[in-house]
Amino acid sequence: MRRQDSILEITGNQSRYVLTASSVRAETNDVLNSPTSRSAIDLASYRQQFAHLRRAADIVRETVLEAILDGYLAPGARLREEELAREFGVSRTPVREALHQLAAIGLIDLNLNQGAVVSRLSIEDILTLYIVRENLEGLAARLAAQHATHEQGKVLATLVEEMKSASADRNLVDLARLNLQFHAEVRQLARSRYLDRFLTQVEHAVRRFSETTFAYPGRTEQSIAEHHAIVEAIIANDPDDAETLARQHMREARQIRLRMLQEESVRATGPDSMLIEER
Predict the structure, then answer these.
(1) Could you state, in order of their start, the residue ranges of all structural domains in the chain?
(2) pLDDT of 239-249, one tens digit each?
(3) Which CATH code is given to the segment(s) 123-260?
């Protein structure tokens, strides 16, 4: 099997990440995407969450979306129209509509040979994602600081206190949920439907990572302190500080994610498989 070397540079505001991979591409993909083989799709537990929706296509879309974000439908998993139609008890028309909508936001790939396949995340995708997220979250925090009332700021402060409680209980599931809720609240305070749309799509990609960065030693306490600082800047209606702190928060999250990817790759393929360094 032929090995190849590749170099990727992604430049942020003050950081330049250089990824050098000296590994078989298939090995790296295994680390990032952790494919799971399923003989049949059973989405009943996810489908129940969206039973209130009226259109069949909406039920199919939201159910498959949540199953992908939750990791039940792994990268590379094939989504057959006939099987999904049978699972939902509908014709193939709403299934096809739902799959096209999911393809439009990058969660699945449609091709003539394989049909619908859950899209894979490459290292390049992940690095670029964090660069984009840093800029968008910074803008969201700036706009939130311009618009937020004191009462709205207190809602964010309450979420941070709940994060502290979850951290004390070592409840990473609740911590990750509260983190998503916090950033969604900031997006709402920004009052920009386009920014909300873009960040929601970024959030979907982040949720697909196999493990939360809160699992990394020391990250929980550091992250909560970063959230607290962002809240203080928003309550003070200080857009410059809010943006700076939000960008720093995303930069720290990116560094932790890179370390987790590197450590996972070393465990899976050996110490020479991947090197990620910051310059």
Answers:
(1) 44-118, 123-260
(2) 999 999 999 99
(3) 1.20.120.530
pLDDT band at 123 (very low <50, low <70, confident <90, very high): confident
**What one-letter code names the amino acid at 135?**
N
Q: Which top CATH class is 44-118?
A: mainly alpha
Q: Which two tokens stand for residue 232?
A: 């203080």
Per-residue pLDDT tens for 127-145? 889 999 999 999 999 999 9
Q: What is the pTM of this model?
A: 0.73
Dihedral sign, Cα of residue 107, residue 111, residue 114, residue 116: positive
Spatial separation of the C-alpha atoms in residues 67 and 205, rounded to whole Å: 13
Let me know: does 10 contact 131? Beta carbons within 8 Å. yes
Torsion angle (degrees, nearest 10) of CA 74, 79, 84, 87: -30
pLDDT at 35: 47
The 10 Å CB-count burial string (b at 16+, else e) for 127-160 is bebbbbbbebbbbbbbbbbebbeeeebebbeebb
Q: Tokens 């999911």 label which residue? A: 102
- What is the C-alpha to C-alpha distance for residues 171 and 163, in angstroms, rounded to an integer? 9
